[in-house]
Each structure stands twice: as C-alpha cells, then as structure tokens.
C-alpha cells in the first residue's frame, strides 16, 4: 500500500529511510510547538490553546502536503508571519486576535486563488536559473546561521551586530554534537543526522544544559477518554477568527505584506529543498509544483481557521531530505508526530535548540554545493545572485533576500539594454517588491 501510494522504489527510498527522515525533520522544527504560543500569547492569546492549535494545524497542513504532492516538504506556523500577527496587527494596529486571524485567512484565500489560476507557478517558472541557485545557497547559509546561534557559537553584539559566543557548556555540547554528526556523515552512516540529534540531546542532559521535565505525560487522556477529544486540551482558538473584522481599508497593506512574505518565503524554500533533493529539472523547475503551492496556500487558510497564524513550508524540511527523505511518507511521519505532540508536548520539549544546532549546520553545508553552478563570469547574472545569498542570512528574511536579487537583476538587465532576456513576470514581480519595500519603510516610519 505504501509503495503504491508514495512510489518508494521509483524515488529510490525505503520505509525505514522515510521514517528516519520524518523524525529528523520533526526534531529540527519541533521548536515551533513552544515558540509560536510564546509569540502569540503576547497578543493576549491563551498559551495552551495556541499550543494545541499549532500542533493540529502543522499536522494537518503537512499531511495535505504529503498526500497531495508526494514530496517530503513539511509545514507549520511561519516564523516572522506570527510576529506580524502578534506585534503589528494586534499590539500596533489594535485588532483583536480574532480579526488578526481573519487577515491571515483572507491572505490564504487570495494566495490559493493565485495558485488555482496558475499565476504563482508562472512567477516561479519565470525566475532565472542562477537566482534559483542563489536562493538555495542563501537559505542554506541562513539555516547554518540559525544552527550557529542555537549552539551559542555566535551571539548578538551592539558594536558589530554579531560576535563570537563564549565557549561555555552549551557551546561545548554543540561542538561535540557537530563533530559526532560530521563523523557519522563522513562514514556514510544511515540516520547520521538523527543519531547526532539524539546523542547531542544526551550530552545536553548529562551536562545539565537541559532539565528533565517534572511531568512528561501530564496531558495524556485518562482511561475511558482515549476515543474522544480529551477534556484536558484547549481548542478555544479553533474557528474563532473574525473575518468581518479583517475587512477594513487600513488592513489592505497588511494583507499585501503577508501575501508577499508568504508567497516568496515558500518559493525560496521549495526551490532550495527541491534542488537539494534533486527534484529540479535542467531549467530549475519542480514537477508537480502546482500541487505543492496549493498545499502551501491551504496551510495559510488552515492557520487562520485554527488561530495559530499562517502555516507555511519549512526550510527545516531540508534536514529530512539530507537524511534521505524523498516522498510524502516523510511528511506523514512528521504529521503524526505533530498530532501526538498535542498530548506529549513536555516530552517533545526535551530536545533543546542546542541538540538540533549541529543538524542545521550540517544541512547548511549540504545546501552550499550548488554555489559552484552559478555563472560568476557574468556581472548581470552573478551580482543579483550574490546579493540574494548575502541578504537572506543577514536579514533573516527569505523574501527580502529574494526581493533584492529580483530588483537588482531586472535593473542590471534594463540598463544594459537586455530587455528581452528578462521574463515579463520578472518586471511585475520586481515592481511588487519595490512597492512592498516602500510600504514597509513607510509603516516603520509611522507615516501610515
């Protein structure tokens, strides 16, 4: 049945490999179970309710992606998007969280329409191959940087923005985990990244970097409640959005900003992870792209409906791909783990950021390889690619890195008179990015 559904042999994988890949993907993204409620609780939302909604929405979105596309892409509440909801829409604009989720829902509906009309896929197909490669490299560096930060190897600095961290117990644990994972990878041990995460967690536990939770199974349903929704869980955010409250002229700009961010974050992730998995053809196109984009757009709708912010395709999917995941079975494993996490959240929390740091650094390394394929001899091709690679990790914003690359690419081609080398949709997209950047700046200055 699994073979028929996911075409495992055709994709050169096995059930065991897919399960390992799913475990790795889940471990590298499980932080969202705790981080998302932490961010949205600042907007007055109940932490426990958002935790339940986050797990349910991530599980459902990832399951849809797995079954619809048969790719190992995973989904959950998007970082950055949840910050817009909490700090901009609620705390700055004064919306209720219900109305803010209405904005997320509307953005999801719009982006779904763009998918169903093929506009989203047309834009992705219009991107030149060198920029697609640069997006993958930039995201790889971004992932590696997150790993360095989680490890404590780099810290913030008022003087230089970032600086080297103190080589404390946390950093030593991360360094040991990184060495172990790298050695396992070099020796081609199957499940190297998963074993690295597990061993680093053990190192962290033994060194008191993490503390054993007092109660691991505190929210398991009682006897007799196993086959119905457990009373201990809080589902109070689900289907409580206020769509009518989102229909305000002043919110049009926020819907546009969310749409641009969601649109191009996903595009960058899909291109980067798809390239690493070897899915892209010689023109950098991903087969079954429309199914991937449809699943992703439905994730935004689900996020609004469930009250946990827009769900989007995760860059951490790359960790599962690095572990050998090649089909939707990887996503099914991740989805099931998210569903189970509703009851076992404290147990999931045992895996600290320091334990996933080595995995993220290794994944960043694996995604760097395509940089050699960029045509560095042509300024109008290489410089936009360079900016994309640079801006994504430096700003921590995939869409901004893509925007810088797009705008620069179009301008360089235009001023050389190479108008025909630029796809018409690239002109439109570059203009949209200029508008997005301008509106973001104007809002930051408090002028609107």
Which structural class do the helices and strands define?
mainly alpha
Query: Regions with pLDDT < 50 over 5+ consecutive residues?
Result: 211-232
* Spatial strand arrangement across the major sheet: 1-4
Report the sheet with the most strands, covering strand number, pairing sense and barrel closure: 2 strands, antiparallel
Give the oligomeric state: single chain
- Averaging pLDDT over every residue, what do you get? 86
Record field, number of beta strands = 4
Query: What's the helical proportion of residues?
Result: 55-70%
N- to C-terminal separation? 56 Å
Overall outline: globular
Element-level helix/strand string? HHHHEHHHHEEHHHHEHHHHHH
Count of DSSP helices? 18
Number of domains: 1
Radius of gyration over alpha carbons?
21 Å
Summed up:
The protein has 448 residues and is mainly α.
How is the topology of this model organized?
Layout: H1 2-6, H2 15-29, H3 32-40, H4 47-69, E1 75-77, H5 81-90, H6 97-116, H7 119-126, H8 129-151, E2 154-157, E3 161-164, H9 169-186, H10 192-206, H11 252-277, H12 289-306, E4 311-313, H13 317-322, H14 328-348, H15 353-367, H16 379-395, H17 398-415, H18 424-444
Antiparallel strand pairs: 1-4, 2-3
């Amino acid at each position: 049945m699994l073979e028929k559904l996911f075409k495992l042999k055709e994709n050169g994988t096995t059930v065991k490999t897919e399960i390992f890949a799913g475990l790795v993907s889940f471990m590298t993204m499980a932080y969202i179970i705790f981080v998302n409620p932490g961010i949205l609780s600042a907007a007055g939302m109940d932490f426990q309710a958002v935790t339940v909604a986050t797990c349910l929405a991530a599980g459902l979105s990832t399951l849809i992606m797995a079954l619809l596309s048969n790719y190992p892409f995973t989904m959950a509440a998007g970082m950055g998007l949840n910050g817009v909801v909490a700090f901009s829409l609620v705390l700055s604009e004064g919306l209720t969280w219900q109305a803010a989720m209405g904005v997320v829902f509307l953005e999801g509906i719009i982006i779904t329409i763009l998918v169903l009309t093929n506009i989203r896929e047309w834009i992705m197909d219009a991107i030149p191959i060198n920029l697609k490669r640069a997006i993958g490299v930039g995201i790889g560096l971004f992932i590696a940087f997150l790993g360095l930060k989680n490890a404590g190897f780099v810290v913030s600095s008022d003087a230089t923005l970032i600086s080297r961290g103190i080589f404390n117990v946390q950093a030593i644990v991360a360094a040991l985990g990184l060495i172990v994972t790298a050695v396992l990878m070099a020796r081609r041990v199957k499940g190297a990244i998963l074993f690295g995460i597990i061993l680093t967690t053990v190192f962290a536990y033994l060194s008191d970097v993490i503390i054993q939770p007092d109660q691991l199974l505190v929210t398991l349903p009682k006897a007799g409640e196993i086959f119905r929704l457990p009373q201990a869980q809080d589902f109070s955010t689900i289907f409580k959005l206020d769509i009518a409250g989102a229909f305000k002229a002043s919110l049009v700009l926020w819907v546009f900003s969310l749409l641009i961010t969601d649109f191009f974050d996903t595009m960058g992730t899909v291109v980067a992870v798809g390239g690493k998995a070897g899915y892209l053809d010689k023109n950098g196109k991903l087969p079954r792209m429309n199914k991937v984009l449809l699943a992703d757009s439905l994730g935004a709708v689900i996020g609004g409906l469930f009250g946990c912010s827009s769900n989007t395709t995760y860059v951490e999917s790359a960790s599962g791909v690095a572990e050998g995941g090649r089909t939707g079975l990887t996503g099914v494993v991740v989805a099931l783990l998210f569903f189970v996490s509703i009851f076992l959240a404290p147990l999931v929390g045992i895996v600290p950021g320091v334990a996933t740091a080595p995995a993220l650094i290794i994944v960043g390394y694996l995604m760097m390889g395509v940089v050699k394929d960029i045509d560095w001899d042509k300024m109008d091709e290489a410089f936009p690619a360079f900016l994309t690679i640079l801006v994504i990790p430096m700003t921590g914003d995939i869409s901004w890195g893509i925007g810088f690359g797009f705008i620069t690419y179009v301008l360089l081609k235009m001023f050389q008179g190479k108008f025909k080398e630029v796809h018409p949709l690239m002109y439109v997209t570059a203009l949209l990015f200029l508008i997005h950047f301008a509106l973001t700046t104007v809002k930051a200055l408090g002028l609107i």
